[in-house]
Amino acid sequence: MNSSISFPSHAASDTLPCIAVLATGGTIAGSAADPANTSGYQAGVVGVERLLSAVPALSSVARVQAEQLASVDSKDISLALWSALAQRVNTLLATDGIDGVVITHGTDTLEETAYLLHLTVKSTKPVVLTAAMRPSTSLSADGPLNLLNAVTVAASAVAHGQGVMVAFNNRIHSARDIVKTSTYTVNAFESPEVGVLGWVQDGRVEFQRKVLRPHTVDTEFVIGANWPHVEIVASYAGASRIAVDALVTAGVRGIVVAGTGNGSIHTTVQQGLADAVAHGVAVVRGSRVGSGHVMRNGAASDDALGFISAGTLNPYKARVLLMLALAAGAAGPVVLQRVFDTY
Description:
single chain; alpha/beta; Rossmann fold; 9-stranded mixed sheet; 15 strands; 27% helix; 21% strand; hydrolase; L-asparaginase_N_sf; L-asparaginase; asparaginase activity; Asparaginase/glutaminase-like
């Protein structure tokens, strides 16, 4: 049965929680000459202090420690930045004076970064990502309210132990479930299969369910110096195996396929992937469909070909998990399938 717990906003005092805000860029830090233009802007050019100054109500919610970790458009996020971000979050959360972390991020790859942190943060303290669909200079910019809500969630006692979350458009999502579903609306994120964790509005935080799969302190994953090379290919009408063969030649450790429907794969591509498995490449079968799960086909296909089912993870999150699993030493379809069934 779902539980419902509320946490009221704090009165301003020296006893307010201390929340570290890490800025990485994105549309929330974007700027445009025309306030009516929400597409022709430059992302990541507004500094974190300016973002915070646009939200004076923060002072009644938490003591904020701000840090500009990066200033990038999230479409250009790198593995090196992922490593730096995860390490910085873990360092901050290990500090007694920090009660939670908020990360401002671009929307394009937010779901990937959030899931990466969900698997590698080693603390039960709240970590909340937020973003915006409109740049900071636009009419009705959504960034300030999203930032206020993210800090409110991170400062909430009931947010502890929920893993990494995303606060966006008054909703609280789990990092594992959230996906971007719109190119332009301020309600750009959904958790299609299981719904949101809860909501935040006017200083009130309410959770209506808990995350059941292991995360944060209950995973074996850590951020290391080296990332296994994993890429994504797609299946579609008339697809060839050119991309698969090129990736195998390039020495990739893993390939995630964005299949049609229930992770089905064009015959030509499937043969290329089967050959990739024979060369020691891990192959994960996902779906390009926006929701649902990929059922393991067992002896009919997956067992015979050595493929792994991504379950409910989309191809982009499946790539994150596969990289971390390979880095942790997981190998072979049986072990890797267990990883995907667990996380």
